[in-house]
Amino acid sequence: LAMKGAADREAMARLVSGIVRTDPDPCALYGGYAALMGSARLARRVLEGALMRARPILGYMLGMLVVQPRLARDEAAMAQLAERIRTLEKQIDYFRDPLHPSVIASAASAYEEVISARVRPRIIVRGKAEHLRDPEIRARQRAALLGGVRAAFLWRAWGGSRWILALRRRRLLRALDAVVDRGAAERERR
């Protein structure tokens, strides 16, 4: 979003929908293995260092993993965020579109007013000035950051940590390959 002004619509819809869903299986939460194949391939390339843009992506991932436990310790912020997420869920149900401008605005507001305003360090988004100044793109960026922080909660709940990204890279790469393989099998069954 910050570099190109756009993001894959389906991936963004899964990310925003994932904020309000409570399925205990992270893959089901984001639409199943087939839906996550592209993201798993991208994550693999990032972890391998094969992408020139990998450094900022890793920075955002690590930033969210730093913010998440600090947010989790702030009971007032967590209560406020839970209320915002309930409102977001109602909006998604009403508009039947996780990318409706009102839904994105609510998610962005929740991120800005609850997380960014209260938890340090802030996650700094870098990109092209024209995209960083555009209010609609900024709202989508903040909605994506909220989705990323939600994913960080899942990562922690399933035993993940910042150190695993650095110390267990091979295991992560195998897990990403398994997501792609299961996604391919899911697609074949359809």
Would you kindly provide a written description of the structure presented here, covering whatever features stand out?
- This protein is mainly α.
- It has one domain: YcfC-like.
- The chain is 76% helix and 0% strand.
- It contains ten helices and no strands.
- Helix 6 packs across helix 8.
- The longest helix is centred in the last third of the chain and has 23 residues.
- 28% of the residues are buried.
- The mean pLDDT is 91.
Compressed to H and E, one letter per element, the order equals HHHHHHHHHH
Poorly predicted parts:
none
Tally of helical segments = 10
Q: Characterize the main sheet.
A: none
The CATH topology turns out to be YcfC-like
Q: CATH homologous superfamily name?
A: HflD-like
Radius of gyration: 16 Å
Question: How would you sum up the global shape?
Answer: globular
Task: Describe the secondary-structure layout.
Layout: H1 9-20, H2 26-29, H3 33-48, H4 54-73, H5 75-95, H6 101-116, H7 129-133, H8 135-157, H9 162-167, H10 169-189
Task: Give the gist of this structure.
By secondary structure, this protein is mostly helical. It is built from 10 helices and no strands.
Question: What would the keywords be for this entry?
Answer:
190 residues; mainly alpha; YcfC-like
